[in-house]
From TrEMBL:
It comes from Notoacmeibacter ruber. GO terms for molecular function: 2 iron, 2 sulfur cluster binding; metal ion binding; oxidoreductase activity, acting on the aldehyde or oxo group of donors. The keyword Transport does not apply. Coiled coil: none annotated. It holds the Pfam family Fer2_2. CDD domains: fer2. This is Aldehyde dehydrogenase iron-sulfur subunit. Keywords: 2Fe-2S, Iron, Iron-sulfur, Metal-binding, Oxidoreductase, Signal.
Length: 215
């Protein structure tokens, strides 16, 4: 009958084994991290050169492909009239127009707009030569803190152009008749622009006045 093997764990042996295991785990983790980094690298170029016509002026920018139109305007062109509010497309503070249609610039990548025409609040008017919509906002006090006002004005101008073009909204009753500029139509179409100061009735009055002057 064989005698049982006597095994005695020495402290030095335990420390050496632990160190070897730690080194092995470290190399394994490093390999996994390197593989993950390699997989995360973009397949194409990380930057692009785009040409945008901003307020009638052609501008060429080389941007990271992840830069939004909003950040291109504010951080690269220093057109800070277009505001960053929620940065999730929910408040409308960043509203500007691209090829005549309003967009939430925080949700749109700048590289998507190569060759497009962009208009910001800086291109609508100036203190010495205000657009009728800007004048109406001043007359009816359509702003308080003013942070949302550039987006409100861009949207307000687009609202009247959409109605004039016969584009219906969710509250348009008769899709075959000419769309009237009603309070309900304006409120529905402006619902994407949030005013945290609550100047909605004044904004409505300003838009209504401009619509009446045009008719």
């Amino acid at each position: 009958m064989r005698r049982p093997i006597e095994f005695k764990l020495r402290r030095r042996t335990l420390l050496a084994a632990s160190a070897a295991s730690a080194v092995a785990v470290g190399f394994a983790r490093r390999g996994v991290a390197q593989e993950a980094t390699a997989a995360a690298r973009p397949a194409g170029p990380e930057t692009s050169t785009v040409t945008l016509t901003i307020n009638g002026r052609e501008r060429e920018l080389t941007l990271d492909n992840r830069v939004t139109l909003l950040d291109a305007l504010r951080e690269h062109l220093h057109l800070t009239g277009t505001k960053k509010g929620c940065d999730h497309g929910q408040c409308g503070a960043c509203t500007c127009t691209v090829n005549g249609e309003r967009v939430n610039s925080c949700l749109s990548l700048a590289v998507m707009h190569d060759g497009d025409e962009v208009q910001t609040i800086e291109g609508i008017g100036s203190p010495d030569a205000m657009d009728p919509m800007q004048e109406a906002f001043v007359e009816y006090d359509g702003f308080q803190c003013g942070y949302c006002t550039p987006g409100q004005i861009n949207s307000a101008k687009s609202v009247l152009e959409e109605i004039n073009a016969g584009i219906p909204s969710h509250v348009t009753d008769d899709l075959t008749a000419e769309i009237a500029v009603t309070d309900a139509e304006i409120r529905e179409r402006m619902s994407g622009n949030i005013c945290r100061c609550g100047a909605y009735s004044n904004i409505l009055a300003a838009i209504t006045q401009v619509a009446e002057e045009r008719s």
